[in-house]
Amino acid sequence: MATIHSKKIEELIQESKYISRDLSWLQFNYRVLDQARKDDRTLIDRLKFLAITSSNLDEFFMIRIGSLYNYIDFGKERIDYSGLSEYPFRDKLFDESHKFFNLQMKTYTKELAPNFKDYGIKVLKFNGLHKKEKEKVTDYFKETVFPMLTPMTYDGMHSFPILMNKVLIFGVVTQSSGNGIQMSKKNTSRSKISFIQIPNNLPRFFEIRREREIVFIPIEEIVREHISWLFRNVEIISADLFRLTRNGDFTLEESDDIETNFLDELKSKLKTRQTGRVVRIEVEAKYNKNLLRFLKKRWNLEDFNIFKAPAGGLIDFTSFWQIIKHNEFKHLLPKSPPPRDPINYHARENEDLMEVLKEKDVLLHHPYNSISPLIELLERSAEDPQVLSIKMTIYRLAKDSRIVEALLKAAENGKNVAVLFEVKARFDEENNIRQANRLRKAGCYVIYGLSAVKTHTKLLNIVRQEGKKVTSYVHLASGNYNEDTATLYTDIGILTTKNEYAHDVSEFFNVITGHSVPGGYETLLTAPRDMREQLISLIRNEAENAKKGGESGIVIKINSLQDDVIIDELYEASKAGVPIRLIVRGICCLKPGVKGLSDNIKVISIVGNYLEHSRIYYFHNSGDPKLYGGSADVMVRSLDRRLESLFLIKDDVIKNYLINVLYYNLIDNVNSYKMNSDGTYIMKQPSDKEEIISVHEAFYNLTEEKLEEVDLLSI
User: Fold this and answer.
1) pLDDT confidence of residue 666
2) What is the per-residue pLDDT for 281?
3) Distances in Å between the alpha carbon of 258 and those of 442, 443, 452, 456, 470?
4) Which of 35, 235, 368, 573 is the most exposed place for a label (fewest CB within 10 A)?
């Protein structure tokens, strides 16, 4: 296998006009880790962000690294945006991943763990306990843990066991006189290897309450202390903790039989996440080198696949959610102010939403506005004898979803309920299949997604008979129909009865549920139909205006920017003189501020208490701005392999409000990072004379009267 010198790798990365998607993602996780390193946050809040970086990294290895190994293991060629082929790109990714992992560990061991005592928290091993506490832990092991553990031996008589994904596992080496494994060439004696998986349904920490503190004992330390119970009268050479991450990336074959073949294949593929190719092993500080050498050979791994926690470190920081959500500490998480009424709807004055919508569109901006008006509208519709039908798309749901209950009630009351339920929503597949089956059994018409594409659009249409007239109450949004995330993610959605929206949404549902081919939409841009072409047209219009000496400008707020065709169009618009401001929370493959390529493009990222999730597209349009909101990011998958929609904003008040949303994102100096042309980021630092502006606070106070006339492109 040919390798590329590290200097050549850096040269290729620098020469490319794009940033690697995966390297950009790692930069995003650094910004999340920054939140865990902020001294002005409470320890519990900082632990929350550390836990988020850990779950993010798990997904990165399962999906992104897993996808890369799909190329490597099957001998397929792949060139990344950075210009690197699969092997040098793998080396670069692992090099950067190790740097991030080391900073994660340093953040925990040097910055967070030393502060535990100030919060009445101790994380101790068994030997750090008092005598009576040790007895209590031993009783817990004997009564609860011990019956759940199963040693799985690998030797001449036993096949190699299936070790599960993202589970804490002990690799135990014992000395045996019978059939065994020769662990190394130097050591000719035979050893036996056994594995003990710690069940995920056991709490990670056993808690002991002292007078002024709570002691948390990691489950692995309890098992380690009592591991001889599982190996009676056998010499234990070593017992080492490790954790596997397996390839979780898979694709589904198209099928004409959605109800059987497609669902069966999906369920089968989900099982492979537990048994797929190993792409990473996390190990503790001290480990048996012969055991690790054996595991590497078993799974065809290299040294870079091994991530070693330092002394005092901990494998899997997601376990800290047990402490973060603990009744003793959860009050130390930041509290959001109570949600306020929408900008143009006074819910607290008991205005009838249906009557209001006949007069004007209503904007919901979460979490600053509650999702309750939408849910209450749906619940009311489920009981309303005048409501004829409800159609909606579902991608992710809350754990105890009022949305599903309302749809079940509507079906029970004899209404025509049609739901496109995307069962392929990553890591929510099993819950979505379960909930979709509930709806189907209740009499709803359920489409289990489409095998070739994911349904990511967020649309709802309630049809109501009102005298001789039928009125459609339509909701179009950027975020999921999820009550939980509506308090944590920033999203936008509009409620409307305008005929042009109702017509377009009805047509779009006909496309989804049948074989309709619409002639065109007045208010929607849709993917995979023509969204890319429509966005290109809007970008080129700004470029033409700039070339003619007119005013022009583009401001886009999205989660990810990766589609190279759109990026090239933005580069060309920049060359034409169009000022472009991009607010990209996560992945950004565009290089801003490169002379002769992107001089007029600035990119920022907002990372803070809320997850920025809304998508807003602004085009100056010679002083008559065109604004779109919706579900779509600028990614290849969004434009080619997803059902997506962007909706035109027609209401002047809402349009002005969303321009202010973009404005406050651009001037934020609390949660904002400026992107450099090399893909790195610098956090904005306000000067002593600057007003402190946090976008995550501004909209709790913004009223219609306070909306400003702003020049977005001067920022």
Assistant:
1) 97
2) 98
3) 19, 18, 11, 18, 33
4) 235
Query: Which residues are annotated as part of the binding site for ATP?
Result: 56, 489, 585, 613
- Identify the burial level of 421 via C-beta atoms within 10 angstroms of its C-beta, where 0-12 means exposed, 13-18 middle and 19 or more buried: buried
Tell me how many degrees the CA angle 147-229-298 measures, rounded to the nearest 5: 85
Lookup: tokens for 385 = 């004898």
Binding site, by residue number, is 56, 396, 426, 489, 585, 613
Alpha-carbon separation of residue 593 from 19, 587, 686 (angstroms) = 13, 17, 21
Residue segments in the chain with a per-residue pLDDT below the cut of 50: 1-2, 188, 252-260, 262-263, 269
Q: Which run of H or E residues covers position 477?
A: strand 469-477
| Structure tokens, 427 | 């890591």
Which stretches within 169-230 are classed as H helix? Answer: 219-225
Q: Name which of 368, 394, 354, 581 is nearest 477 in CA terms.
A: 394
Instruction: Using the CB atoms, write b or e for 437-449: b if 16+ within 10 Å.
Output: eebbebebebbbb
pLDDT in tens, 445-455: 888 766 678 88
554 Cβ contact list (under 8 Å, min separation 6): 539, 542, 570, 573, 578, 579, 580, 581, 618, 619, 620
Contact indicator for 202, 145 with CB cutoff of 8 Å: yes
Q: Give pLDDT tens digits for 130-180.
A: 999 999 999 999 999 999 999 999 986 778 999 999 999 999 999 865 555
Q: What is the pLDDT of residue 333?
A: 95
Reference 449, options 263, 635, 272; nearest CA is: 263
Q: Is beta strand 214-218 parallel, antiparallel or unpaired with respect to 205-209?
A: antiparallel
**pLDDT given at position 4:** 59
Structure tokens at 680: 């790195």
Q: Which amino acid does the sequence have at 75?
A: G
Tell me which long-range contacts 695-700 makes (C-beta under 8 A, separation of at least 24): 695/606, 695/608, 695/664, 695/665, 695/668, 695/670, 695/671, 696/490, 696/608, 696/609, 696/610, 696/670, 696/671, 698/664, 699/365, 699/368, 699/661, 699/664, 700/337, 700/340, 700/368
Residues in the annotated binding site for Mg(2+):
396, 426
* In the block, residue with structure tokens 């950075």: 82
Q: Would you say 424 and 449 are in contact if contact means Cβ atoms under 8 Å apart?
A: yes
Are 644 and 638 contacting, i.e. CB atoms less than 8 angstroms apart? yes
Amino acid, res. 314 = L
Which of 456, 475, 620, 696 is labelled catalytic?
456
pLDDT for residue 703: 80
Query: Residue 441: which H helix or E strand, with range?
Result: helix 429-441
Rounded Cα distance between 708 and 715, Å, is 15
Spatial distance between the Cα atoms of 612 and 695, rounded to a whole number of angstroms: 10
| 3-class state of residue 345 by DSSP | coil
5 has catalytic annotation: no
State the DSSP code for 65: I
